[in-house]
Amino acid sequence: MQPKLVRLSQYFLPTLREAPAEAQIVSHQLMLRAGMIRQASAGIYSWLPLGFRMLKKIEQVVREEQDRIGAAELLMPTIQSADLWRQSGRYDDYGKEMLRIKDRHERDLLYGPTNEELITEIFRAGVKSYRDVPKLLYHIQWKFRDEIRPRFGVMRGREFYMKDAYSFDINRKAALDSYNKFFIAYLRTFARMGLRSIPMRAETGLIGGNNSHEFIILADTGESQVFCHRSYLERDGMAVDDSTLEARAAAVRDWTRDYAATEDEHDIEAFSAIPEDDQVATRGIEIGHIFYFGTKYSVPLEAQIADESGANVPVHMGSYGVGVSRLLGAIIEARHDEKGIVWPAAIAPFQLAVINVKVADTACRAATERIMQQANNAGFEVLYDDRDQRAGVKFAEMELLGIPWRVVVSPKALATESFEVTKRRSGVIQNLGLEAIVPFLCKQFGR
Amino acid sequence: MQPKLVRLSQYFLPTLREAPAEAQIVSHQLMLRAGMIRQASAGIYSWLPLGFRMLKKIEQVVREEQDRIGAAELLMPTIQSADLWRQSGRYDDYGKEMLRIKDRHERDLLYGPTNEELITEIFRAGVKSYRDVPKLLYHIQWKFRDEIRPRFGVMRGREFYMKDAYSFDINRKAALDSYNKFFIAYLRTFARMGLRSIPMRAETGLIGGNNSHEFIILADTGESQVFCHRSYLERDGMAVDDSTLEARAAAVRDWTRDYAATEDEHDIEAFSAIPEDDQVATRGIEIGHIFYFGTKYSVPLEAQIADESGANVPVHMGSYGVGVSRLLGAIIEARHDEKGIVWPAAIAPFQLAVINVKVADTACRAATERIMQQANNAGFEVLYDDRDQRAGVKFAEMELLGIPWRVVVSPKALATESFEVTKRRSGVIQNLGLEAIVPFLCKQFGR
Asked: Do B73 and A2 touch (CB under 8 A)?
């Protein structure tokens, strides 16, 4: 839980007038300019207070949707022993992307790029019977992939924040239901962030298995070419019935019926069969990836449970990833204009920015405090620019930061009893009396 | 924010009847037995759901008290470049405790054991003027120290979770006020966790500087010998006035007036001067450590700000650490009995455990749901044992977990309209009607 009222004088928000030349894409430029991140070394970032706050917001939405499907949160360490990875046979597969480490005793360690091995070991030690599954476990932890050429800011960094979940089931049928639960949870997660995500059939790569979907948002600046049916542009990820096994299966069938594939899995013939007006060929950003891989890890790592007959069988597994830090970049790619970021109201760092243009003035300060108090009481988070700065600088910075609503307190507003309340997205201004501001905002947010 | 109602059937709580032999101290034994942690490799732990939940609870108390003194939260990465550490001269000082890494391009990296260098660089890039200080910044992040002999579970692990804060001021006088703010914040933080912490003059070690206090809790199993005046056993860390600079200075003077020192700084003569009845010589656990080190880092790293005359001066700094993961062990060392953990009510993973001894019974299930709903609505967190298990097993496990209050639902309780409500700490049982349970708990928690 981050503070609900932040005063810029105490905050650390080093905005930049110009983005550094190395920032090639708009989200990277805006995150640097808005003082959200700062590069520590190649592909490794410090998250300054505003960026950190957004990271926590996104994390919390991801968490709530995992909890909603009955997944339990735990936390695995960043540093793992190489032995487990040798057991699964993946120690060599990862090549140079895996950050390999030797400790003071010359033991081989690594910075986890993912956690199939470790979670399988944890499960194995704790669960023995079919009665204890399905078991859905997840964690949200820093990962490291030693990209040869880190770029695009947090979109393709080396140290990155990821939610990875794992499902454990008695057989393939039950495991596919777990897969469907996460599939639907992902539709909801991204929809809550104002993103239209499209599940696309995908390669399974280093994770393995034979069933996999990537969740893609469309963006001109996306890293890969994607192809889909226009129907996906009109679907609502929140309107999915997931109350029963059958409902989940039907929902996933419905969401995978029309054509949608990344470049790697693209079937030109199938795509050409779509009416031309419905063909969408554009670029996309991957924000989630889910896998069903059966017993790929449970066999070598000997994770078995007793079935109803008492026989030990290897557990059926899937894994489910969301790039939490990457999502920040993805949201900004999807939501910005020439002035800066335009956060969706549901996932903004603050809902309200208050600019006091004359902080030395007692009446202005009192009015500001009154508005902030009311807003906080109504559950809004408020960023207050209480710095002794030119009004023009304050306005431009707030637009860069992209907070959905802005109120300006000035001697003139006080004298005329008319305060400017501006919507960031449209730029439309309301003139309201002091006591009408927070009730107006409540209405906008449906509170 | 963790879920407010957890059903054991969906949770992952692999309790153990016996603690593994390698666990030497009671907190390590109990954390393993209660299914809170599991060793991943030497000195590196996975935090299972119950342990993770407590870690987040402790983190949130630490966070709130940092926010309260106006510190802004950010997040620095775990992996740092070695170059910065060469600039400060500490790259070699740390010796083998520092986990050194080479990336695929053979660049020297390290897993941060602390962050003075990186935060100084972040500050330098963002703050230019005396008008922008004091600036208090903190983060809560995983650290790594490659202990030669990791032991005592999370008390002396290799990968550990720590809050480290940094203060930046224009001069020594202002910097000492920042020091005092953190000093008082620590008294409050630990008091909120039910711990009596004693600030003791301490060595500055690898951090450096000339003013330093460790915050110690007394425990027979503590790692070091400590000596203090008995007055510290009766002080209230919450009852400290920190409203002004003068009040803070007076409070710190008051809290450092009587004798209190760790072994390293022990002054036998001064200690002997205390009346014998007031001499306390025992063992202690370090849970926090604060440092004022002036310009030790700002000079080599060239972190300067303009003073009122326009001249650039090196900024005065301090740093302030709390071992978040270690605190879990410390609390358990301080709060346990022969049956298991006894969480302080203010910082328990759940306030209420509900045991349904006959989960197949419709009336029992309905009564259970009603109690849980009421408890949730009143703001309590509830752990529900809905497993089909023997009652004896359920009782013993709940006592091991140490949840402050327990309610038992059974056919007999329903028939007699009398439910057993048991306080974990005292074992005292109340017999209450179904509708009286939650109002009774509200009273106990002063709600």
From this structure: yes
